[in-house]
Amino acid sequence: TWQYKTPATLGLNQAKIDQFASNVGGVGVIIKDGYIVKEWGTQTSHGEWASASKPIYSTMLFFAIAEGRISGVNALIKDEGWNLISKDQTMTFAHLANMVSGYSRGEAPGVAWAYNDYAIKLYALSLFDRVYGVPANNSGSVESLVKHSSRLGPLQFQDGTLFTTIKGAPRVYMTPRDFARVGWFWLNKGKWNGQQLLPANYFNDYMKPQVSGSLPKSTQATTDYLGIDTMGGGTNQTPYGPGIYGYNWWFNGFVGTSGNRAWPDAPADTFQANGHFNQEIMTVIPSLNMVVAVRGNWGTFEPGNAAAGMNQNLKLLKEAVSGTDLPRVFPGTSWVEKTPAELGVNSAQLNSAMSYLASVSGSQGTTRAVVVKSGYIIWKGNDIDTVQNVWSVGKSFTSTVFGLLIDENKATLNTLGKNYVSSLNSQYPVVTLKQFATHTSGYNAVGGDQSTTPFTPTTPRYFPGANFSYWDAAMNQFGNVLTRIAQEPMETYFKRKIADPIGMDDAKWDWGDWGTMDGYVVNGGAGNNNKGITISARELARFCYLYLSNGTWNGQQIISKSWIQQATSPQVSQSLPGYVKAYGYNWWTNSRGDLWPDASTSAYAAQGFNNNRCLVLPEWDMVVVRIGTSGNLDDYGTYVNEFLTRLEPAVSGGQVAGASTELPRTGGMPIDGALYLSWLVPFLKPKRAKKEVA
């Protein structure tokens, strides 16, 4: 059986937990850190979870691959003996699991999105009947398969029956607390009580949206030519899915091409199994170390709508974990300081994480570091007002000028640089501002990357858009172009539009320049050659807090939310030669999970030489700044990933003030056999595995 803790014991806001339960009603359970902290309704009540059952199929798909029954997610469905029509010959298990198969629709596999219960029926029959050799319409056989000791048997389901059969396909028929075990299994990336039941790579690769936000919706209906019938609904039930769906889970990704997250006020790493469009739900929130399973009513199904009931209820869960009722604020002339505990952060674990950061950050360590949560400074070094060069962090200031010019309709992503700098005419006639901002312009200057004459073009390094190459000379020319568009120095423009409105202290920041060209002072666009941003940690935190706040400051929209989202989302194709890690418009972004594999995909940063860095962590409403003049130990984020791994329990699993003992995750083990768990954090590795719970 699960063990129990009161919400207060785990630092949760009891009133918000109770409000959530009241809002959704029905029967449900909330798991935090491996303990039941709230349950309501009849806990032994079994019920059908409708489409929330579908992630079980993908779980069993991964077991089939791990057991060698099929080659992988791209194994062909036709190889399971189905007589597919010509257009469907390339259909794979991945197509079916991600609702892009085209079965009983007119489009070919992978071409269009359709939430399709006929295709899911084909998925279930292919997986259970054909791959496992177990009849999908026999719930007892399916249950025995799933509960095998080599699969989900170690989860120790406590309430009996797990499955029923409806329309010839298995459906989950568990109690909420048993279904929550499946969510806890996913949250821990396939590990249970020290045993890796499924390799973690399945979760690393597939526990995120799989359907491109730009994929069109299906418009062509055909027939169920295999005669398999539906699992429940039709072949095209909702337009929602692109950008937020993957392997039968709904993720808090960006809805289509809107730039809005599915649940704007929920942690970015939230995902859920969803039945009857918000009635039967299991929600998993890794950053809060929480699983919630409820058969009730979560509100209307409107991904992207902040006012929708689902978003508002998920917001309550996030607020409950914060452990504080302090309002989110913006600094005035000075920052308000609070203790970590006042913001629901575990002080000892925060100090431990910052000590680790100091150990890998050069001679200044974290003396010039500051941590801001919800607008309050909760940790600071003893030298956060020293002004210094921050190198390539300045590139994010340059792109901010670019965003402002777009907001004012003075430029677009496709504006040509040659229109403003005539020396680009002959060799760089098609280079766009977007290409400058993504290091794909191919621009080169006499003297190369660290040229002292960056405005003197030479032979292109490659055709614009054909390669990714982190190149400072190009960034300085980018700054020159932006200066001509603004018709004033970038520093002057930035000061008026950003620095002054957010209260940056003039004495604590400066923007170096290359001198006057054609009547304009040209500030450095790259941060090299001492021509970039010099700033204190305290003032840099203001700049990054503006980004964390989606461009608003005390109710005023300083820079558009649209620009913030674009700049901090991947803009460079992974297939492009030279691609290193996810890069936006002069911001490093973890949206694809490849920069900091163990961190939330909402995290991003401005980064520069000597471990100068401003981390923006939306899921924790937090900014972490560290600057210094020595030590360039990091390799695109190895140590940052480790730091964020150590920071996570301080924010998501920290104790309330005054508690004396850390509480471990328990994984839902029976009380008489529970093995207490601990974080496994290897000290330093060149490339570390994803965080798991032993």
Give descriptors for this structure.
single chain; 694 residues; alpha+beta; 8-stranded mixed beta sheet; 7-stranded mixed beta sheet; 14% strand; disordered C terminus
Structural class: alpha+beta
Largest sheet: 8 strands, mixed
Number of strands: 26
* Proportion of strand residues: 5-15%
Identify the strand order in the major beta sheet.
Answer: 1-3-2-12-11-10-9-8
Fraction of residues in H or I helices: 25-40%
Mean pLDDT level:
90
Low-confidence stretches: 654-694
Notes on the structure:
It is a single chain. With 694 residues, this protein is of the alpha+beta class. It is built from 16 helices and 26 strands. An eight-stranded mixed beta sheet has the order 1-3-2-12-11-10-9-8. Helix 1 packs antiparallel against helix 8 and helix 10 packs parallel to helix 12. The two termini are 19 Å apart. The relative contact order is 0.11. The C terminus is likely disordered.
Can you lay out the helices and strands and say which pair or pack?
Layout: E1 3-4, H1 14-24, E2 27-32, E3 35-40, H2 54-66, H3 93-97, H4 117-132, H5 139-146, E4 163-166, E5 169-172, H6 176-187, E6 191-192, E7 195-196, H7 200-206, E8 245-246, E9 249-251, E10 271-275, E11 280-285, E12 290-295, H8 309-322, E13 336-337, H9 347-359, E14 369-373, E15 376-380, E16 388-389, H10 394-407, H11 433-437, H12 472-486, H13 490-499, E17 509-511, E18 513-517, E19 520-523, E20 533-535, H14 537-548, E21 552-553, E22 556-557, H15 561-567, E23 588-589, E24 604-608, E25 612-617, E26 622-626, H16 638-652
